Amino acid sequence: MRYYLIGILLLGGLAPMWLASHLHGRWIEPIRPRVPTLAPYLVIMAGLVGIGLAVDGPHLFADGRWPGLAVSPLLGYVISRLSWRADRWILTRLTRRGEHTPPPARLRPARGTVRPVGIAADKGTLDGPAPGQATGRWTRLERTRDTHLGPAWLIGGAVLEELLYRGAWGRLALDAALLSATIALLTVATLAFTVLHLPFGWAHVVAKLPLSLAALAATLISGSILAAAIGHAWFNLRVWKHYRSVFGGQKRRTGR
């Protein structure tokens, strides 16, 4: 049974955002259009973390090194500051604009189509329309629902992502019998976290690599996911404040 759970944990962790987007666009949005895509995403992530707890036990959180736990808040602060600066620097150079604004009006999406997730909606469509992909205008309802969510949504997502990628996956990697397997799984976990942001665009995938590497390093140094969770939560809070200011300015300019 343990190996089945590990298989679900690894396969489910490869693309939980895409799974949530598909479930939301196909079944939830036609019935409950005001439910944000982050809702099924957090449910999926919580389920995967639960499986991780069943596989790894409490060692998913920490290995018992109390000095590491003591310095975790400071490490988390350093992670958030450095990762945020690296994220902004990379995005500024890989995108034509440092700030994103909502895309121009397009045709309304057909019922059941899948749009970019959450604040990724400001990216517009991804390299042209495709089956199951958004081609419609970003309506006022969608803007209110997906970009004006409270910070608790993004903080909760940050903690769950660290519990999965640095906690559950990281513990599996460290418990592997072969060093090569440990390195391979840690590498996959680091990249899987960055690819998680693909709905925002490839620039965001690259920009999240410093955060992923810093969170991994802090976890290995401290022996706990606490530093990674604090740093990631702080990072996401900065993201929330940034996009709130961007869309707040858009609202003041347009009066909508």
TrEMBL record:
Transmembrane spans = 6-23, 35-54, 66-84, 172-193, 213-235
Q: Does the keyword S-adenosyl-L-methionine apply?
A: no
Its keywords, alphabetically, are:
Hydrolase, Membrane, Metalloprotease, Protease, Transmembrane, Transmembrane helix
Q: Name one GO molecular function term.
A: metallopeptidase activity
Q: Answer whether the UniProt record assigns the keyword Magnesium to this protein.
A: no
Q: Where is the CAAX prenyl protease 2/Lysostaphin resistance protein A-like domain?
A: 153-237
UniProt superkingdom: Bacteria
Q: Which protein are we looking at?
A: CPBP family intramembrane metalloprotease
What species does this protein belong to? Streptomyces humicola
